[in-house]
Amino acid sequence: MGEAPVEEAPESGKAKAEAAKPETHEFQAEVSKLLDLMINSLYKDKDIFLRELISNASDACDKLRYAAITEPDLITGDSDLKVTIEADKEARTLTISDNGIGMSHDDLVQNLGTIARSGTEAFLKQLKKTDEGEGDPSLIGQFGVGFYSSFMVASKVELFTRRAGEDAGWRWESKGRGKFSIQSDDSAARGARIVLHLRKSEADFLDVSRIRHIVGTYSDHIALPIELLDDGGAAETLNEGSALWTRPASEISAEQHQEFFRHVAHLPGDPWMTVHMHAEGRFEYTALVYVPDMRPFDLFDPARTHRVRLYVKRVFITDECEGLVPGYLRFMRGIIDCNDLPLNVSRETLQHNPLLAKIGSGVVKRILSELDKKAQKEPEKYSEFWENFGAVLKEGIYEASDNRAKLMKLARFRSLTSGENWLSLDDYVDAMAEGQEAIYYLSGDAAAGLDKSPQLEGFKARGIDVLFMTDPVDQFWLPTAGDFEAKPFRSITQGSADLEKFESVEKSDDEAAGEAEDKASDGDMDKLIAMVKLTLGDEVKDVRTSSRLTESPVCLVADEGDVDMHFERLLRQHQQPVTGQKRVLEINPGHSLTMALATMVSSEGASAALEDAAHLLLDQARILEGETLPDPASFSRRLAGLLTKTLGA
Ligand code: ADP
Ligand code: MG
Description:
Distance between the termini: 94 Å
Bound molecules: adenosine-5'-diphosphate, magnesium ion
Strand order of the largest sheet: 1-6-5-4-7-3-2-8-9
Helix content: 25-40%
CATH class of the largest domain: Alpha Beta
CATH topology of the largest domain: Heat Shock Protein 90
Number of helices: 21
Structural class: alpha+beta
Largest sheet: 9 strands, mixed
Number of strands: 23
CATH superfamily of the largest domain: Histidine kinase-like ATPase, C-terminal domain
Strand content: 15-25%
C-alpha cells in the first residue's frame, strides 16, 4: 500500500473533513523516552517484537469475535480470523496483518501515543534501570508497551487500520522520534496492517527460516492461524492454531506454557505454578491459570481486580468479570473457558451469574489445594510464592469465610525464633509451651526492628514464641479470624501478659536472688506505681507492673478491648482520623531503675525528682514504641536536669 493522499476532496461529515490532512501528534513523554531506548536498543533479544505484534493481533481478533456475537455484520464476508506475515526483501519491509477489531482515529491516539495503563511510575523506574544497563528487555510487555518494541528493528513503522463497523480507515506513521502522524486512508481493510521498514542491520528478520523459528518459539500457543506468505502469495501456516487449553495437558510443553503465560499475563518471567483443569458433570469448563513468579506491578492497585480472562466456547468474552476470581487471588493469570454459557451473554449480567460463581469457586478450590501441595512438598519453593503474594492471600482470611481455614493453613509467618524461616500456624501450635493456650503475636513494622520490642522480653525469657504480624492486612484479619485449632490469637501489646504461669528458661541464680529482693520491696513498688499514676494523670489509662519485661524498665500496651497501637499508627500514616487512645504504662519491677525509684518513694524531699522520673519513664516507653513525643521540649528539659544531677555538675 502506498502513501495515502495528503489532500482529499472534502466530504460530508466533520471527521472526514478534519482528517483530510495528516495530523501530527506528539508522543507522551514516557513513550518518547521508551522509544529512544528502543531505537538505541542494546537489547539482545530483539525477536520479541514479533511476539508482541502477534499477541496484539490475537487480542484484536478476540475482541472482534466477541463484538460479532451481538453484531454479526461486523465480521460477515471476512470471518476467518488470522494473522498474516509477509516479508518483502526488496522493499526491506516486514508486514504483520490481522483482520481483527482494528482501531478508530481516537483509538490510535490513545493506544499508540500514550502508556494508558496504571503503574506508569513503576514503569519509569524500570526504564531507568534499563537506562543504566540493568534492565531486562522482556519486561517490556509487562507495561503494555509491546507495540513500541517494533522500533527495535524498524526505522519507520506504518500502520493501516480500520475499526470493524466503521467506514473511515487510517494510516498511522512514525519514525519513533517524538512524533507520529495520522491521516485518513479509506483503503485500509478491517483490522490492522503493520508495515515495519527494517533497518539495514535487521534485514535478517526477512529470512523465512528466522520467522518460522520465532513464531515457533514465541507464538505457537496462539489460537489463530499465523500464516506466512511467500513472494508468490502462497501461504504456509506456522502454528497449530488451536487454543492451548483445549490440548491435552500431557502435550503442552513447558515452553508453550511459558509463552502462553506471557501472552495472557502481560508479564515476563515464568509461571511459578500452572493449574490446568477440565471439569465435566454439572457444568463443563476448562481453566488454565498460572501463578506468576514475580509481583505484577499493579498488585496493590486499590481496585484489586483480577486478570483471569473469561472465554465461552473458545470465544474471548472479557477480562473484567468481577467475582469470577476473588480479589485475594488477583495475582493469578490465565483463562477460564466455559461451555455452558450462551455466547451472547452480556458482560453486564456476568457479575451476578450463579453459574460463573460456581465455576469460580471450583477453580479457587483447585488453586488452593495445589498451593497446599506445593507448600507440603516444596516448602522452599513455596516461600518464594509467599514472599511475593502472601500479603495478598491473607486478604482472603478476612474476606472469604468459606476458604478461611484453608487460607490459614497456607499462611506463613516470621517469629521471634524463626530467623529467616517461614512458620505455618501448624508449626507454631506444635511448638507451643506447656500450658500455653493462645497464639501470641506482635504487630508492627518489620523494618522498624520489631524483634527488639520490649514487650517481647518476657516471652524470650520463657522460651515462648511470638508470631510477627508485619503486613498491614494482618490488622484486618486478626480481629475477625477467631482462632486456629481452638487456639485464640492474642496480641502481646494488648491486655495483661499473664506470663507468670510459665517458667523462665533463662533465669540465673543471680536473678532468682534479685527476685527475692523485689519481693521485699513490694510495698514500695506499689507506692511507686500509685505515685506515677497520680503524676501522669490523664496521659495514661493505667500504670501497673509487668511480667512482659526483663531488660527494659517500661513499655506501653493497649488495654484489653482497645485499638492495637500499631493499627492506630497505621491509620494515622494513611491520614485516617484517629482519636488517640490512652495506653497502659507497664513497669518492670525487677529493673534496677524502678527498684531505685521505689526505694525513693518514702524518702523526704524526693518528690520533684520522682515526678520528673515518672514523665521520663512514660516518654521512654513512647520512644520504644516508635511514637513521637507529644512534648519533646519538656522531655529534653527533664533529661538534661537529671543528667546534670547524676554527673554532679
Ligand atoms: P498491550 O497489548 O499490552 O495493551 P501494546 O503496546 O502491545 O500494549 O498495544 C497497545 C494497544 O494498542 C493495545 O491495547 C490495543 O488497544 C492497540 N493495538 C495494538 N495492536 C493492535 C491491533 N493489531 N489491532 C487493534 N488494536 C491494536
Ligand atoms: Mg500487546
